[in-house]
Amino acid sequence: MRHIAIIGSGPAGYYTAEAAQKQWGDGVRVDIFDLLPVPYGLIRTGVAPDHQSIKGVAKRYEGTALSENVRFVGNVTIGEDVSIAELQGLYDAVVLATGAPNDKPAGIPGEGLENVFGSAAFVGWYNGHPQFAKLSPDLSGRHAVVIGNGNVALDVARILSKTADEFHGSDIVAHALHALQKSHIEQITILGRRGPHQIAMTPKELGELGHLTRACPRVDPADLPAEEEDLFLEPGQRKSVTHLRSFAAIPEEFRCDKPVEIEFDFFASPRAILGDGTVSGIEIERTALDSEGRASGTGETYTIPCSLVVTAIGYKTSPIPGVPFEEGAGRFANDEGRILPGLYCVGWARRGPSGTIGTNRPDGFGVVEKIAEDLDSGALYHEVKQGRRGFDALAAERKLEVVTFRDWKKIEAEEEARARTGAPREKFVAVEDMIKARGE
Ligand code: NAP
């Protein structure tokens, strides 16, 4: 029997479990650990609440979760309740599928001012992550700045500009919906340190900005390269740039009909966030692309007054003491998923925060292939591991309040029962409430 522990129940974790099932069939037992009492990681608290079709992939993970040889072990914090070394003593392989839950710092003055948030925190707030549910961003000002030209910047800008009706069918949490309904934001500036050809936004997500009820995107035509240069872009990127071109062509009269403007400010690198206690503006340096395609400061600076800043410039994995880490890339140091004998990583924890949810499937299958190679070569065999029997004994000894998948199904039923009309669920945003909802 193979015993595998996976830390993290997001996409990378469940795809790895699925791969282990395919690899060893009934000859494997997989325990998927999560520090929250609820599964699915990024699907629950990262994917935008108005992108329910993407969240639908959780049904596939449920198929894996409900099989006999896979267990969900929720409400267990690795590193506090149990150490990596202890898990290594119990399981043949330990796979870190911990994602990249921390914001990459922008490294500029003023990041610590009030009403400046990293996107992990801001997205966690509107998605009901217990760690960020109490964030309470102040939306009473007129101007918000979102730093970054990726899909997360688009998510944040879109969520800030939608009407209550546009959240129909979403699972945005009640506290965020109420705050957004009272928002006074009329101007959202998306800062890109490079140009339209260098955006990391995908066409479908960018196109959504063109169909918002009360917000209109604005692109300065002067920022767009000559149209024939689009031919050198790969097809997806060309499609995204076509959206930017259509935004640039929106007539002024039409734009004025909508109360919220989402402005793309390209070649704009933030230099400092300004304010006395609370953010009041942002200082920006105009950039130009150097010969390597990098943003290079021109020396020209300007200031945008604003009352809310969200940095959406990428994420980092949480380091774990004793586990080799690549600080610059914000991920575990690994060779195709291998970190140390018996210790592996997968998904964003392996490759950094890039790609789509589906990218994690080949990643999961890849890491299981490495584990199988190592087990077959005898590289990992020191002793027969106890697997989940050993963990259960440890959990009982430490009186851990483990949440099972069956418990999660009760929590889920409670969340569905308390959903507002049209919404799939109203999430619990406090761990205690989740635990209470599972009953006895
Ligand atoms: P991302 O795609 O890596 O984009 C990060 C952006 O931040 C880039 O435009 C980057 O510019 C910019 N940036 C980085 N450091 C900066 C700095 N110091 N100052 C100014 N700008 C800076 O990251 P993300 O948006 O967080 O997305 C993470 C992953 O999740 C991506 O793979 C994304 O596609 C995926 N995602 C997908 C969806 C969806 O499919 N609906 C939704 C959300 C997220 P440079 O290019 O110049 O470095």
Structure description:
The relative contact order is 0.18. The two termini are about 30 Å apart. This protein has two domains: about 1-100 and about 315-435, Rossmann fold (3-Layer(aba) Sandwich), CATH 3.40.50; about 105-315, FAD/NAD(P)-binding domain, CATH 3.50.50.60. Helices cover about 30% and strands about 20% of the residues. It has 16 helices and 19 strands. Helix 1 (about 10-25) packs across helix 13. It has a six-stranded mixed beta sheet with strand order 3-2-1-4-19-18, sandwiched between helices. A six-stranded parallel beta sheet has the order 6-14-7-8-10-9. It has helices at about 10-25, 40-45, 50-55, 60-65, 85-90, 120-125, 150-160, 175-180, 205, 235-250, 250-255, 350, 360-375, 390-395, 405-415, 430-435; strands at about 1-5, 30-35, 70-75, 95, 100-105, 115-120, 145, 185-190, 215-220, 260-265, 270-275, 280-290, 295-305, 310, 315, 325, 330, 340, 345. With about 450 residues, it is α/β, with parallel strands linked by helices. The structure holds NADP nicotinamide-adenine-dinucleotide phosphate. NADP nicotinamide-adenine-dinucleotide phosphate binds near residues 151, 155, 200 and 355.
